[in-house]
Amino acid sequence: MQTHYDAELKDTVRYLGKTLGETIKNQLGQEWLDRIEKIRKGGRASYQGDATCSEELKETFKTMSDSDLLTVGRAFAQFLNLGNIAEQEYNAAMNVDASIDALFKHLDKAELTAEKVQDAVAKLNIDLVLTAHPTEVTRRTLIHKHKELANCLQAIHQESLNDVERKKIETRIADLIAQAWHTEEIRSVRPTPVDEARWGFSVIENSLWEAVPDFMRELDGRLNEDYDVSLPLDSSPVQFSSWMGGDRDGNPFVTSKVTEQVLLLARKRAAKLFAIDLDRLQVELSMYDCNDALREKVGDANEPYRALLRPLVDKFIATRDGISDYLAGKNPDTSNWIESDDELIEPLMLCYQSLLDCGMQVVANGLLLDTIRRARVFGIHLLRLDVRQDSERHADVFSELTRYLGLGDYAQWSEADKQAFLLRELGSKRPLFPAQWDASDDVKEVLDTCKVIAKHSKHGFGIYIISMASEPSDVMAVQLLLQESGVDWPMPVAPLFETLDDLNNSPDVMRKLLSIDWYRGYVKGRQFVMIGYSDSAKDAGALAAGWAQYQSQEALVAIAEEFDVSLTLFHGRGGTIGRGGLPAHAAIYSQPPGSLEGGFRVTEQGETIRYKFGMPKLAKRSLGIYASAIIEAMLFPPPAPKEEWRELITAMAAQGRDNYRATVRHDEEFVPYFRVATPEQELGKLPLGSRPAKRKPQGGIESLRAIPWIFAWAQTRLVLPSWLGVMRAIDSVKTPENEKVVNEMFSEWPFYRSRLSMLDMVFHKADPRISEAYDERLVPKELKHFGEALRSELKESISSLLAITGDDDIMKNDPQGKESMEIRAAYLQPLHYLQIELLDRIRKAGDDAQNTSLERAMMVTITGIAIGMRNTG
């Protein structure tokens, strides 16, 4: 049965596809359009199971020239882009307040008191951390065109349009599609960390700047209406941080100079945006009535609100222009720069209170309230920059220093000796670093980063994250580095526990840390801990990683309570299943009870930023989903797992880990198969994010980052890391005597149910027939059995999942998600067969394939498939 969603979205996709077809015909002629249309129809039939059409597609591509393959690849990648834009616009046009409506229905049904609701809202603290992992495959130039196109689709769906207006919009849509077709879709060079940061700022300027006050106004209105409760004026239920320009873990291009440049560019963008807001306000606030407090501030000015705001506009303009001059190498006068959030918030609050006192509530609660809320959420720094570095780099500083001072090698000391040294120096009044010390370049870079933190306002920074943290000394080392560099405020330092062993050891590490008197004094009752999702899943498989993450969080919550510390768990999720990706509501509600009390901090990466926050309506909808899920989880916490549930999930996780590692780590045929069956090696040539694909350039598969690891498997539709070993592990403990408990876990435990829900999504994106086609052409005969065994497990796993859920098909409970994937299927199918042809040609050509249309076509198919799958890494 076709839903309204299906029909309207399909009509839009067809319309955009037809417009692209006209563009192709105008450039290449009718013959080319007919050719592409025949391939599209073949792709649809192939997806529906027509083996003859699949063979015809393969044969068609075999006979094409390299340049013709490039043209076909570009056409289908563009079709998929247009399909995504249509879906994004459709989702934005849906009831953006549906999540908040659902929340209030739930609250009303539970008959909660206003006090309970007020308490939950007061604790609402969503910190979204924008990251630029190498997953955003679409060029910024095209993203701009796509945004314009989405705006046109929004406009053309207005029922009140007359024929002239409609024709004008259709002409603009054709114009934008033609622009995109004639634009190079593959970057010629990787973006720099500064490019990535600028893109993050643009998301705020073009979408979140409008969406945040709209979301807060909607939430406030519903609270008022239903419970006579208000969002406090000083509240910031959502805030934004960033890793772009601060995440130096394995990225040699993020230097102290880059970090400083990004900090200043963020301030410049904030100054630009607040100057526009304030200028608009001072134009509108022309009233003469004011209270005594404002009158005292502005004297006998005729227009008191304007008199207060105009100098503030000038300060923001001076800041904006001064930062431009400074970055251009000039020496600007900084005396008139805006330096603190209070300089912005105090005048705004003075105006607000005056308007209330003078009976102008409706004016106070208009544009002025929106600006106050932006000031609270974004501040003069726009967002807060996190700094991330590997623990080894900090240890190297002290190793080099202790050798220079003749104290031995810090790296060789015991953990007890390291802690004793660090504590002694943290309590010392004398400088630790000698003035004449000629440190190595790597050590200087770590110290220079700490000096940048010392030089800039604490309000411009988020937290300092230590990857590969495994001991208390890893955290204390950073605190000593910051202290010695002149950082005079307690910057929160968060260990990142990312491998399976790290997660299992995290409670022990945090207990030792919080047992140190000096450390408890430093954190002042607030601790951040980051939980890694992608590396733990890559290390041990999805089920073992998920359970380790759950247990780790549960134990950390208990330890925080024991030491009377507010714990904020920072979730390093990605957009994909293999990196912990789940629909927001399910992800939040499956957390352990109590884990949201200290706030909810989560990474938003690459393309998911665009899909969730790329348009104001989408952003408002996403913020509503987060807020409603967190409030709901705080007011109606999920049950703590029963002992028998724990026993079973622990057995499942251990079996899942062993199953996964038996293939990925211990089977000597796995790496050779992975290298030939996926485009992993070719991925390294695609200029995605600023960060290299491997932590160690000469390393093997173990050093491959989790993102390209998952990206490679998604390209072949085996999506292996997300499911390998999981259902076999579940089946191994689902004996007759355990069946009742397993069924109870599924019906009553959100954590367990969410694992199976993730698999449901994964299995819909997986396609054994496509994976088989890669093997058939690319895998040598002696390795073909390996792929056959994996696909056999995939098919078994799908059957096992359906037996548990009782459904007769995958994604039965998410028809919209299922239809979303199927709309793109006709365009995805040809790209896979095209990529197989290209991989075969490139590997046979060897070095001769470099910098040719063959290699460019390969990049286009990688990009197109990533776009069609709606996630990359």
Automatic annotation (TrEMBL):
Keywords: Carbon dioxide fixation, Lyase, Magnesium, Pyruvate. Belongs to the PEPCase type 1 family. PROSITE patterns: PEPCASE_1, PEPCASE_2. Homotetramer. GO terms for molecular function: magnesium ion binding; phosphoenolpyruvate carboxylase activity. Forms oxaloacetate, a four-carbon dicarboxylic acid source for the tricarboxylic acid cycle. The gene is ppc. InterPro entries: PEP_COase (IPR021135), PEP_COase_bac/pln-type (IPR022805), PEP_COase_Lys_AS (IPR018129), PEPCASE_His_AS (IPR033129), Pyrv/PenolPyrv_kinase-like_dom (IPR015813). GO terms for biological process: carbon fixation; oxaloacetate metabolic process; tricarboxylic acid cycle. It comes from the Bacteria. This is Phosphoenolpyruvate carboxylase. PANTHER family: PHOSPHOENOLPYRUVATE CARBOXYLASE. The active site is at residues 133, 538.
